[in-house]
Structures are given as structure tokens and as C-alpha cells.
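ingest -> validate -> predict -> emit
validate: passed (alphabet ok, no gaps, 560 aa)
predict: started
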Amino acid sequence: MSQIDISRKYKPFNRIDLPNRSWPDNEITQAPIWTSVDLRDGNQALPNPMNLEQKTELFDLLAEIGFKEIEVGFPSASDTEFAFTRKLIEENRIPDGTAIQVLCQAREHLIKRNFESLQGAKKVIFHLYNSTSPLQRRITFGMDREQIKAIAVQGTRWIKELRPTLPDTEFILQYSPESFSDTEVDYALEVCEAVMDVWEPDTENKIILNLPATVEMSTPNIYADQIEWFCRNMKQRDHAIISLHTHNDRGTGVAATELALLAGADRVEGTLFGNGERTGNLDIITVALNMYSQGIDPELDFSNIPKITDVCERCTGLPVPPRQPYGGELVFTSFSGSHQDAIKKGMDARKQTGDDLNAPWAIPYLHIDPTDVGRTYEAIIRINSQSGKGGVAYILEKEYHFDLPKAMHPIVGKYVNDEADRQQRELTNDEIYRIFKAGFINLEAPLQLIAYDIHRDKEDTHLFHITGSLALNGEHREFSGEGNGPINGFTNALEKMGAKDFKLLDYRQHAVGSGSATQSAAYIQIQTDQGSTFWGCGVDTNIELAGLLALTSAYNRSKA
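emit:
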């Protein structure tokens, strides 16, 4: 790298002269027109393009999500693309009101073949394109500006001549000056207006002008400036739908789209999870759910992200990255202890709203409710060596119904996290429960309660007598004691045996589960004569026995 003079090799992208730009003060208040290009732009980027069955399954998903414009392919490019377009039309698979979009270069024989594929379609967007950037003009085509504009104009004329061959089809022309973001904005506008002059759109029958960042060349604000400049300077703005098509070469395709919507665009093309050439297309899911998080209805249904992920992975053969916004496996997951604790507190606070699904969402570290997109709370907190007390307690409560006392959280959390650290990996929920059970529940050594009997004193009804047998350090012994309850009486029995070296600090109990299989969980904290504190848990269908088992568990932990 030291031999490269980057100031000579790379130049900053030219800024747009746009005095008093307005987009920084605007806000997005409604959903744009959404257009999926998964089946064409996304498909061409796959190592193994989709077959007819896969394309059909993905088309059905896109329709189910609510896309009203779906680019289905480039019918003149291959027999598969042609056959798929015909399949959709002939099998009446296109929902009423939904337009299929087909892509085509400005070549007469390709345009004619595309028209053949569209016979019988109810609503069509014919997407004509040619590249206009100076780099493409010079290197790819060896043409000047007038020659490139002539290609666009002639392509539009051919389409207009063939338009009557689809008399029963609602027909919309879309024109893309490919590489718009790298084209001089005044020249891009000149070409688009030349196309409009031929097509003659009006306010009722608008043309779509798609202005793509075919390769992301600049920071998102410059793309927004380009869109605002274009909208400000075109002669018949009300005769056109301004469309965006961003790629993600710089990793800011979403930001570029959002800023360009502020700049006046009406329509967005993209794919699910951003599948596309190089680093990908715009991820429509991200932009749509970003709007959702701001209280704007995106008019697309992403309430079942797990299903969408499954279909996309199966059809494209590409995995959805675990950190992909909204759709990734880990995007609603916290491993950090402080994050887990904050999320748990937020969830607990939300319980106070009862069943009000529309209560304002306010959970630390979660900007939307995962259940709104088909995810579950159980997946939010996962445990590894970086996790904290709140996360372990959350899992034990949500999955296994153990409502640990607050003071017990850090003890159990550290115990579980130490095991995760030893294993150097994430722990499953079942593993967390087994570790908790092995370390805290119904422990039997060195003290084991074998049998017991309790009865009230006949004269003092507040006094209980407890007798029974136990094993201590492997030795079988009988015991007896009395107190104001079973736990107090058992503690007295241990004192009589010379085995009590602690005092009781805390006792809690609650039901675990419901119905005939309900058990009781009891938690006891003791403090040894040396000042150390220990928690134990007891679980049994008998609440009385659960308390005694919690005491023996705490005692056994103090001796470990």
C-alpha cells in the first residue's frame, strides 16, 4: 500500500451545485411505491440462478408481502426468463392490481421479444434502459452524448410503435439512464426529457424515471442532491414518477435511499435482504421497517420475517447474515450483561400495560417490538461468557418459570457465565437450566433430607414439631426440632445436632407452571457465621417440602 499515491489514484466525487437544498429539513411521512427486483436484478447476481419453481415460489411470497410492482425478469434474455413470464400470465398467478415489470435494452429485436412475452398481461411496466455515464460512453460504447441519447429515444419509439399490440393491457413505460449517479445531472435530465418528448406522458398516465446509483460512488447526501436537482429542474415534474434504485458498494445504500426520498423521490426499487450484484442492492426490508419504527405504515407485510427468511434462503441459495437488520438470527439478541439487564427491566415495565398491544414501545436496546416481525422474546437474550445476571434470570423465568429473587440474580448469573466461559461458547436454554439445577436445586450433599413429619403442638398452635431422618456427610441420623414453621423447626433440629452454623436471611416461594402438574419453587438465603451468604432452591409439588429442600440446598452450597 505504501507505493500507492491514493490522492492520484482516487478523486473525491463531484458535488452538486444546489443552493438552498431542501431535503435536509424534510421528513418521510408516507410509504413510497415499492418495486421488488428480486426476480431479475437479484436473480442475475446468484451463482446459481433460480429455476422456474424457485422463481414462482419467490413471486408468490412477494405478492403475499404486498408488492404491487414486481420485476419478473428479462424475457428476451433467455428461454427461462421468457417461460417464467408466460407462466405467470397463463396460470393467472398475478394478483389483480399488481404490475409485472420486464427489463429490456434499447434494441429492437429484444423489445419485440419482450412484447411477445407480455401478451395477455393485465398490467405491465416496460423497463427500458441504456447507460449514460461518461465512463460507459467512453469505454464501453465509444459514443458521444448525442449518440447515447439517440439510443434512448429510438428505443422509446420502438416501444411506442408496439404498444397497440397489447390493447387490453395497462401499460407503463419506465426509463432508466443506467449509472445515473455517475452521469452529469444536466445530461441525465436531457436524455430523460428526450424520452418523455417521444412517449408524451401526462398527469394521468405518468412515465417512471428510474434514477439508479448503479454503482454507489459517493456519500448518500450527494445522491440526495442529485435527486433534488433533477426534480427541481425537469420541465414536467407532475408527468413523472421519480424512482430510486441504489446499490450498496459503499455500504450506504439504505441511507442513500432514505435521503433521496427526502429529496422528492416517489418510488423505490430493491430486493429482500439486499441480494444483488457485488455488495448488493438496496434492502427493502430495512427501509420499510425503518419507517415502521417511526410510526409510518410501510404498506408491506413483514410480520413473519422467519418465513420470509426461509423462502429467500431456499430460493436463492444464499444465507441471510446473522447481523442483517431485522432478518438476521442475532439482530434482536443481546449477549452483553448490561444490555440483558436493561431489556429485562424494560420487559417487566411493559407488563404493567397489560394486554395493550398499542402501548408506546419503550424497551432499552430494542427499537421495535420483535413480535411485530414474527420473532419471539425467547430469542432476544442468549447466554455466553459476556452475559450478565439479568440475561440468565430472564431465560429461567421466560422458559422455565423460575422467578428468582433479585438478590439471587448475580449469583446464578455468575455461576452460569463461568460455565459458558469454561466451554468458550454460547449456552442453549436447556443447558442454562441444567446448570442452574445442578448448582442450586434440591442439592443432596453433604446434607440430605430423607424423611420428615410435622405436627402442631396441641397446646401452642403456633409451634410446630418436626422429626425425621437425614444423612450428613454420609452418616444416617435421626432429628427432631421445633419452631414457628417447618423451616424454623428444621433449623432448630440442625442446631441441636451441632450442624447449624448459619442464620436465615431470606425466604421466597412461588408456583411453577399451572394445572395438575404445578410445582412449587422455594428460595432461601443463609449467612454463615463467617459472614458469607448462599442461596439455595427447592422444587417439589409439596410447598412445605420445597422450602426444606431450599434450605438443604443453601446449606450444601455453603459447604461446597
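The chain has three domains: 29-211+224-241+303-316, 337-416, 447-559.
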